[in-house]
Design a protein that fits this description.
Blueprint lengths: L3 H13 L33 E8 L2 E10 L1 H5 L3 H24 L5 E13 L5 E11 L14 H13 L21
Antiparallel strand pairs: 1-2, 2-4, 3-4
């Protein structure tokens, strides 16, 4: 059974080995599940620029995908399912490489639906950013990344604690290290 640290190190190594132009032991290009993998490696056309990234938040693996798309692709009725398939292919690659790097299997279940955002800077340049979350099995003793309190909740709690220190007449209890005499 792998520890949380070993799982994160394995994922880090998978990401480090997944650069553009990466090859396997035989010298063949790695099939990462990206659209650019279907084209010749010598093509530098902007239409095949895409990539993925990983982050771990508690016991949640967050897979992020970014790639340039055309307006024609966005208007296609299968665009969302194509993005979902692309994310599934990337996760399949991550699991395969994780097994190769660590010798252990990476087991994860999806949390919620994939989210994506399409943005453009002009009528010519448009890109998509997609994100999917997965709960990693075997990370016992690690806080849930999706149940953890947000920064706003923590701030709100600390402000309430600060405001609750004083009473109506603002005669709050003095700290133990105050050594001066009481004022009259």
């Amino acid at each position: 059974m792998a520890t949380a640290e070993e799982i994160v190190r394995g994922l880090s190594q998978v990401l480090a080995d997944s650069y553009d132009g990466a090859t396997d032991e035989k010298g063949d290009p790695l099939e990462m599940g990206l659209r650019r993998g279907a084209f010749d490696a010598n093509i530098t056309d902007k239409r095949v620029n895409d990539g993925f990234g990983l982050s771990v938040n508690g016991n949640v693996l967050i897979v992020k995908y970014q790639g340039e798309v055309t307006l024609k692709e966005i208007k296609d009725k299968n665009f969302e399912s194509d993005m979902g398939q692309c994310m599934a292919d990337v996760l399949k690659f991550i699991k395969k490489q994780y097994k190769k790097v660590t010798g252990n299997t990476l087991s994860c279940k999806p949390i919620g639906d994939m989210s994506y955002s399409v943005q453009s800077t002009s009528r010519v340049r448009t890109w998509v950013e997609a994100q999917a979350r997965y709960k990693i099995a075997g990370m016992d003793g690690v806080a849930n990344g999706y149940d953890a309190p947000s920064g706003e909740e923590l701030l709100d709690k600390s402000i309430r604690k600060f405001l609750g220190m004083g009473k109506k007449d603002w005669s709050a209890k003095k700290p133990e290290n105050v050594t001066r005499k009481k004022e009259q």
